[in-house]
Amino acid sequence: AIDVTLPGLGLPAGGLHPINRVYDDLTAIYERLGYTVIEGPEVEDEHHNFEALNVPWYHPARDLQDTFWLEDGRLLRTHTSPMQVRYMVDHEPPLKIVVRGKVYRYEATDATHEAMFHQLEGLVVGDGISMADLKGTIAEMARGLYGPSAKVRFQPSYYPFVEPGADFAVWWDNPRGESKWLELGGCGMVHPNVFKAVDDLREAAGKARVYEGKTGFAFGLGPERIAMLKYGIPDIRYFYANDPRVIGQFRGEL
Ligand code: TYR
User: Fold this and answer.
1) Which residue, 3, 90, 131, 145, has most beta carbons within 10 Å?
2) Any bridge partners for residue 75, and if so which?
3) C-beta 188 within 6 A of ligand 1
4) pLDDT tens readout for residues 103-146
5) Pocket test for ligand 1, best of 219, 224, 225 (most atoms within 8 A of CB)
6) Looking at this predicted complex, what is its ipTM?
7) Per the confidence metrics, is the pTM higher than 0.95?
8) Residue 166 Cβ contacting ligand 1 at under 6 Å
9) Nearest to 76 by CA among 102, 58, 114
10) 228: left (phi over 0), alpha (psi -120 to 50) or beta
11) 219 lines ligand 1 (CB under 6 A)
Protein backbone atom coordinates (compact mmCIF):
# COMPACT_ATOMS: atom_id res chain seq x y z
CA ALA A 1 0.00 0.00 0.00
CA ILE A 2 1.12 3.57 -0.61
CA ASP A 3 0.94 5.98 2.27
CA VAL A 4 0.02 9.19 0.45
CA THR A 5 0.47 11.16 3.68
CA LEU A 6 4.25 10.57 3.72
CA PRO A 7 6.27 13.67 2.82
CA GLY A 8 7.88 13.46 -0.66
CA LEU A 9 11.57 12.93 -1.23
CA GLY A 10 13.51 16.09 -2.04
CA LEU A 11 14.99 16.13 -5.52
CA PRO A 12 18.59 17.33 -5.63
CA ALA A 13 18.64 20.49 -7.72
CA GLY A 14 21.55 21.44 -9.93
CA GLY A 15 22.83 24.95 -10.30
CA LEU A 16 24.75 27.20 -12.60
CA HIS A 17 28.53 27.03 -12.44
CA PRO A 18 30.00 30.25 -11.02
CA ILE A 19 31.70 31.00 -14.35
CA ASN A 20 28.38 30.75 -16.16
CA ARG A 21 26.83 33.08 -13.60
CA VAL A 22 29.50 35.68 -14.28
CA TYR A 23 29.11 35.17 -18.04
CA ASP A 24 25.38 35.70 -17.69
CA ASP A 25 25.91 38.94 -15.74
CA LEU A 26 28.37 40.16 -18.37
CA THR A 27 26.33 39.19 -21.41
CA ALA A 28 23.21 40.81 -19.89
CA ILE A 29 25.17 44.07 -19.68
CA TYR A 30 26.34 43.82 -23.29
CA GLU A 31 22.99 42.73 -24.68
CA ARG A 32 21.50 45.81 -23.06
CA LEU A 33 24.08 47.84 -25.00
CA GLY A 34 23.03 46.20 -28.27
CA TYR A 35 25.85 43.68 -28.69
CA THR A 36 25.47 40.31 -30.37
CA VAL A 37 26.76 37.42 -28.22
CA ILE A 38 28.67 34.71 -30.10
CA GLU A 39 30.94 31.72 -29.55
CA GLY A 40 33.54 30.08 -31.77
CA PRO A 41 35.87 27.13 -32.28
CA GLU A 42 38.36 26.13 -29.57
CA VAL A 43 40.54 24.43 -32.18
CA GLU A 44 42.05 27.20 -34.24
CA ASP A 45 44.72 27.63 -36.87
CA GLU A 46 47.89 29.63 -36.58
CA HIS A 47 46.65 32.25 -38.99
CA HIS A 48 43.53 33.23 -37.04
CA ASN A 49 45.09 32.84 -33.57
CA PHE A 50 48.28 34.76 -34.34
CA GLU A 51 49.17 35.97 -37.83
CA ALA A 52 45.96 37.82 -38.68
CA LEU A 53 46.11 39.44 -35.23
CA ASN A 54 49.44 41.02 -36.05
CA VAL A 55 51.39 38.49 -33.96
CA PRO A 56 54.28 37.57 -36.27
CA TRP A 57 56.14 34.29 -36.02
CA TYR A 58 58.96 35.82 -33.96
CA HIS A 59 56.68 37.29 -31.27
CA PRO A 60 57.29 35.81 -27.77
CA ALA A 61 53.57 35.03 -27.40
CA ARG A 62 54.13 32.38 -30.07
CA ASP A 63 56.57 30.52 -27.86
CA LEU A 64 55.90 26.80 -27.84
CA GLN A 65 55.69 27.07 -24.06
CA ASP A 66 52.43 28.98 -24.25
CA THR A 67 50.53 27.09 -26.90
CA PHE A 68 49.04 23.62 -27.06
CA TRP A 69 49.85 22.60 -30.62
CA LEU A 70 47.80 20.02 -32.48
CA GLU A 71 48.57 18.50 -35.87
CA ASP A 72 48.83 20.44 -39.16
CA GLY A 73 49.55 23.88 -37.69
CA ARG A 74 46.38 23.74 -35.64
CA LEU A 75 46.25 24.61 -31.97
CA LEU A 76 43.98 25.18 -29.00
CA ARG A 77 43.18 28.88 -29.13
CA THR A 78 45.21 30.86 -26.62
CA HIS A 79 42.63 33.66 -26.53
CA THR A 80 39.19 34.52 -27.96
CA SER A 81 40.65 37.24 -30.21
CA PRO A 82 40.70 34.98 -33.33
CA MET A 83 36.91 35.33 -33.29
CA GLN A 84 37.38 39.02 -34.08
CA VAL A 85 38.89 37.90 -37.38
CA ARG A 86 36.32 35.18 -38.09
CA TYR A 87 33.39 37.48 -37.39
CA MET A 88 34.72 40.32 -39.53
CA VAL A 89 35.41 37.97 -42.44
CA ASP A 90 31.76 36.89 -42.29
CA HIS A 91 30.11 40.24 -41.51
CA GLU A 92 30.37 43.81 -42.75
CA PRO A 93 30.66 46.77 -40.40
CA PRO A 94 29.16 48.35 -38.36
CA LEU A 95 29.21 45.61 -35.73
CA LYS A 96 29.17 45.11 -31.97
CA ILE A 97 29.94 41.65 -30.63
CA VAL A 98 31.04 39.88 -27.47
CA VAL A 99 32.59 36.42 -27.65
CA ARG A 100 32.47 33.99 -24.77
CA GLY A 101 34.38 30.73 -24.49
CA LYS A 102 37.27 28.62 -23.30
CA VAL A 103 40.93 29.31 -24.03
CA TYR A 104 44.06 27.26 -23.38
CA ARG A 105 47.62 28.01 -22.32
CA TYR A 106 50.43 25.52 -21.91
CA GLU A 107 51.70 26.59 -18.53
CA ALA A 108 52.16 25.33 -15.00
CA THR A 109 49.02 25.65 -12.90
CA ASP A 110 48.82 27.41 -9.57
CA ALA A 111 46.21 29.27 -7.53
CA THR A 112 45.75 31.93 -10.23
CA HIS A 113 46.69 30.03 -13.43
CA GLU A 114 44.90 27.19 -15.16
CA ALA A 115 45.77 25.55 -18.48
CA MET A 116 42.12 26.08 -19.48
CA PHE A 117 40.22 29.21 -18.56
CA HIS A 118 37.62 31.54 -20.03
CA GLN A 119 37.53 34.90 -21.74
CA LEU A 120 34.99 37.48 -22.74
CA GLU A 121 36.08 39.38 -25.82
CA GLY A 122 34.44 42.50 -27.20
CA LEU A 123 34.71 44.08 -30.65
CA VAL A 124 33.07 47.22 -32.00
CA VAL A 125 33.77 48.43 -35.54
CA GLY A 126 32.27 51.32 -37.45
CA ASP A 127 33.04 54.85 -38.57
CA GLY A 128 34.68 57.24 -36.13
CA ILE A 129 34.80 54.83 -33.20
CA SER A 130 37.21 56.29 -30.64
CA MET A 131 39.08 55.52 -27.46
CA ALA A 132 36.39 57.56 -25.67
CA ASP A 133 33.80 54.99 -26.80
CA LEU A 134 36.03 52.22 -25.47
CA LYS A 135 36.44 53.91 -22.09
CA GLY A 136 32.72 54.60 -21.83
CA THR A 137 31.94 50.98 -22.62
CA ILE A 138 34.32 49.59 -20.00
CA ALA A 139 32.95 52.07 -17.46
CA GLU A 140 29.40 50.95 -18.27
CA MET A 141 30.43 47.32 -17.75
CA ALA A 142 32.01 48.23 -14.40
CA ARG A 143 28.79 49.97 -13.30
CA GLY A 144 26.80 46.93 -14.38
CA LEU A 145 29.04 44.65 -12.31
CA TYR A 146 29.76 46.78 -9.27
CA GLY A 147 27.08 49.47 -9.10
CA PRO A 148 26.66 53.09 -10.22
CA SER A 149 29.70 54.44 -8.35
CA ALA A 150 32.18 51.93 -9.86
CA LYS A 151 35.49 53.47 -10.93
CA VAL A 152 37.70 52.34 -13.84
CA ARG A 153 41.38 52.93 -14.53
CA PHE A 154 43.29 52.59 -17.82
CA GLN A 155 47.04 52.14 -18.11
CA PRO A 156 49.03 52.04 -21.35
CA SER A 157 49.90 48.49 -22.35
CA TYR A 158 50.89 46.50 -25.40
CA TYR A 159 48.96 43.94 -27.41
CA PRO A 160 50.02 43.42 -31.03
CA PHE A 161 46.42 43.59 -32.32
CA VAL A 162 45.66 47.05 -30.91
CA GLU A 163 47.23 50.50 -31.12
CA PRO A 164 47.11 52.17 -28.70
CA GLY A 165 46.65 49.36 -26.20
CA ALA A 166 45.73 49.53 -22.53
CA ASP A 167 45.02 47.44 -19.47
CA PHE A 168 41.96 48.28 -17.47
CA ALA A 169 41.14 47.87 -13.81
CA VAL A 170 37.97 48.34 -11.79
CA TRP A 171 37.87 49.62 -8.24
CA TRP A 172 36.42 46.78 -6.24
CA ASP A 173 34.60 47.77 -3.06
CA ASN A 174 35.04 44.52 -1.19
CA PRO A 175 32.14 44.12 1.26
CA ARG A 176 34.16 41.53 3.23
CA GLY A 177 37.59 43.11 3.46
CA GLU A 178 40.20 45.16 1.72
CA SER A 179 39.08 47.10 -1.35
CA LYS A 180 41.45 47.28 -4.30
CA TRP A 181 42.00 47.88 -8.02
CA LEU A 182 41.07 44.71 -9.86
CA GLU A 183 43.09 44.23 -13.04
CA LEU A 184 40.42 42.87 -15.33
CA GLY A 185 41.80 42.76 -18.84
CA GLY A 186 43.30 44.31 -21.95
CA CYS A 187 41.86 46.55 -24.61
CA GLY A 188 42.66 49.07 -27.29
CA MET A 189 41.93 50.42 -30.76
CA VAL A 190 41.95 47.72 -33.45
CA HIS A 191 45.31 47.75 -35.26
CA PRO A 192 45.11 48.62 -38.99
CA ASN A 193 47.07 45.42 -39.74
CA VAL A 194 44.15 43.41 -38.32
CA PHE A 195 41.69 45.13 -40.65
CA LYS A 196 44.09 44.50 -43.53
CA ALA A 197 44.42 40.80 -42.65
CA VAL A 198 40.62 40.56 -42.49
CA ASP A 199 40.23 42.22 -45.89
CA ASP A 200 42.84 39.86 -47.35
CA LEU A 201 40.86 36.87 -46.05
CA ARG A 202 37.64 38.38 -47.39
CA GLU A 203 39.18 38.98 -50.78
CA ALA A 204 40.49 35.39 -50.91
CA ALA A 205 36.91 34.25 -50.19
CA GLY A 206 35.52 36.42 -52.98
CA LYS A 207 34.10 39.08 -50.65
CA ALA A 208 34.48 42.86 -50.80
CA ARG A 209 37.27 44.60 -48.89
CA VAL A 210 35.27 46.71 -46.44
CA TYR A 211 37.47 47.15 -43.36
CA GLU A 212 40.31 49.39 -44.46
CA GLY A 213 39.64 52.88 -43.15
CA LYS A 214 37.23 51.70 -40.47
CA THR A 215 37.93 52.23 -36.79
CA GLY A 216 37.11 50.04 -33.85
CA PHE A 217 37.96 48.97 -30.35
CA ALA A 218 38.40 45.58 -28.73
CA PHE A 219 38.78 44.25 -25.22
CA GLY A 220 39.31 40.93 -23.47
CA LEU A 221 38.86 39.86 -19.88
CA GLY A 222 38.72 36.77 -17.69
CA PRO A 223 35.52 35.83 -15.87
CA GLU A 224 37.47 33.59 -13.45
CA ARG A 225 39.02 36.69 -11.93
CA ILE A 226 35.62 38.28 -11.36
CA ALA A 227 34.09 35.05 -10.00
CA MET A 228 36.97 34.39 -7.58
CA LEU A 229 36.49 37.77 -5.95
CA LYS A 230 32.71 37.82 -6.13
CA TYR A 231 32.30 34.40 -4.52
CA GLY A 232 35.44 34.36 -2.37
CA ILE A 233 37.02 31.41 -4.22
CA PRO A 234 40.74 31.40 -3.33
CA ASP A 235 42.10 29.04 -6.00
CA ILE A 236 41.21 28.97 -9.72
CA ARG A 237 41.66 25.18 -9.79
CA TYR A 238 38.53 24.75 -7.64
CA PHE A 239 36.37 25.78 -10.62
CA TYR A 240 37.27 22.70 -12.66
CA ALA A 241 38.14 20.08 -10.04
CA ASN A 242 34.48 18.94 -9.98
CA ASP A 243 34.55 18.79 -6.20
CA PRO A 244 30.89 18.71 -5.13
CA ARG A 245 31.78 20.61 -1.96
CA VAL A 246 32.69 23.60 -4.10
CA ILE A 247 30.11 23.36 -6.87
CA GLY A 248 27.39 22.33 -4.40
CA GLN A 249 27.51 25.81 -2.87
CA PHE A 250 26.04 27.17 -6.10
CA ARG A 251 22.98 24.95 -6.12
CA GLY A 252 19.38 25.80 -6.29
CA GLU A 253 19.49 29.40 -7.46
CA LEU A 254 18.71 29.00 -11.11
N1 TYR B 1 43.74 38.53 -26.21
C2 TYR B 1 44.34 39.18 -25.07
C3 TYR B 1 44.84 38.10 -24.11
O4 TYR B 1 44.41 37.00 -24.16
C5 TYR B 1 43.35 40.08 -24.36
C6 TYR B 1 42.96 41.23 -25.22
C7 TYR B 1 41.86 41.15 -26.05
C8 TYR B 1 43.71 42.39 -25.22
C9 TYR B 1 41.52 42.22 -26.88
C10 TYR B 1 43.38 43.46 -26.03
C11 TYR B 1 42.28 43.36 -26.86
O12 TYR B 1 41.96 44.38 -27.68
O13 TYR B 1 45.68 38.37 -23.29
Assistant:
1) 145
2) 44, 69
3) yes
4) 999 989 999 999 999 999 999 999 999 999 999 999 999 999 99
5) 219
6) 0.98
7) no
8) no
9) 102
10) alpha
11) yes
